[in-house]
Amino acid sequence: MAPRKTATVSGRKTTAKTAGKEFTGKNTPDFGQDEELHAYREMLLIRRFEEKAGQLYGMGFIGGFCHLYIGQEAVVVGMQMSQKEGDQVITAYRDHGHMLAAGMSARGVMAELTGRQGGLSKGKGGSMHMFSKEKHFYGGHGIVGAQVSLGTGLAFANKYRGNDNVSVAYFGDGAANQGQVYESFNMAALWKLPIVYIVENNHYAMGTSTARATAQSNYSLRGSGFGIPGMQVDGMDVRAVKAAADEALEHCRSGKGPIILEMLTYRYRGHSMSDPAKYRSKDEVQKMRAEHDPIEQVKARLLEKGWATEDELKAIDKDVRDIVADSAEFAQNDPEPDVSELYTDILL
To answer: pTM for the whole thing?
Structure first.
């Protein structure tokens, strides 16, 4: 068994069983200029897109459930920086950021949010159910924990076909208590399936703190009964995420089976747009924004190292805002799906 080690992540001391290194942001490799600029732009696109989605929801253009990814951008961007063409991604309903990071168009994502025919699921899936075979993105899923079993199936397909692709399955700290998650762990460990299980631990399962809802809040240990190694990662530092992703993906590609990455992250908004988030203080949220914001960390490094000026970063922000504004305009004016679409994509 790997030794227990103590890591300090986002101000928390935690005990973690690791597969190798600890990724706290203090002992991870620095990015080069191109990596920092790429991470900054990708995370900023997700942030601005989600802010606009929140506005459109308030205006009534987006209906139903809508879960924003604001604050958690470093997790998916860091993972995508390590993945290769052919690796599959599957996640839960907080999925807009995952789709953008996977290279899906802002227009297509926003049009799906507004239920228009140009959406990535033809306007029939909405916020929680988007899909792109081209981008190897197998959906946001509204059933809590369902994507973990589906992601395990993707990993089984990879092993069966003999390729070296890895399935990356994201789920939250609340979903980590679902029974099907452990059935999936057992199968993946038994057959040494190439899958990275990512627990996006944002500290609150809907409106309940993890401390009140789980007997083992160190989610990196959740696979220990199956022999699955796990690592805790500072999910607010894109460098730490990228370093952990490099090791985890290599672990899977080398035939060692599944691995768990617990990303210690934080969402700034409520669980969904209908959640006022009164179960936590404004001071708690502001402290995380001030001390651990993933985008501001990259911005500070770019300026400190002289890799970008304030004007250059403002230009990136303007470009991103233009992309988001264009997506919103498209999504508000694109036609709704034809009635005939009710009878397509139906599996019997």
So the answer is: 0.90
